[in-house]
Amino acid sequence: MKLVLHKADSRGFANHGWLQANYSFSFANYYNENKMHFGALRVLNDDVIAPKMGFGMHPHNNMEIISIPLKGILKHKDNMHKQWQEVRTGEVQIMSAGIGVEHSEINGSLDEHLNLFQIWIIPNKENVTPRYDQKLFNENERKNKLQTLVSSIDEDKSDSLKIHQDARISRINLNEKNSFTYTIKSKNHGVYVMNIYGEFILDSKTLKTRDAIEVSETNSFEITAKATSEILFIEVPLNF
Questions:
Q1: Residue 210 carries which DSSP code?
Q2: pTM exceeding 0.90
């Protein structure tokens, strides 16, 4: 099994006043030649956005974009919709940029900061028709068991959102002292594991809040919670 540990304080950071951004991979003005991507996973940004602030209209193409609000309300608008779409804590949003889309994302609250993960995954199909979707996921359904949030559009998983890549994004809320074994789809897949909060052990390595670890070259791995933890798994093809 190959493991690469990334401590939370090793991430790139940008302070724009209205935006506090932590970058797991090279992004914007942050560049690290050793952190360009993990397989098809290109971006994992941990953003905190001030009330009423956000990103104006800007373009994307040929990228699968996933937003996961952790606290607060995200408001999204694109050239596929005339109205703002609210994405609240507990929901997940996906957008297949395909041949090209323009969108804006802002904090939908007047007085509360928004914290969200934004994930970019390189697609396995280019120049598709842009599409948008969002879904509310019940927190109770990931207590000590895996909850799939996003999967391939080619898979028959009606309870998850769909993207154009043989990838899987999932979460688990693991109680203290509980263990969980994650099974990887194939030898060509790896998993980027992000500890949203808490503390857990993976193969003698301890991960605390916002620490992450790359896992590859194995069929499965076990996680044991030292404290109650919420964990995000991003499984992607390594060669694509």
A1: T
A2: yes
pLDDT for 24-77, tens place per residue?
999 999 999 999 999 999 999 999 999 999 998 888 999 999 999 999 999 998
Distances (CA, A) of 100 to 58, 63, 66, 80: 10, 9, 16, 11
Annotated binding site: 58, 60, 103, 105
Q: What angle do CA 172, 175, 181 make, to 5 degrees?
A: 55
- Summarize the annotated binding site for Fe cation as residue ranges: 58, 60, 103, 105
Phi first, then psi: what are they for 90, rounded to 5°? 105, -20
The CATH topology of domain 2-237 is Jelly Rolls (2.60.120)
Domain ranges of the chain: 2-237
Residue 170: strand pairing partners: 148, 233
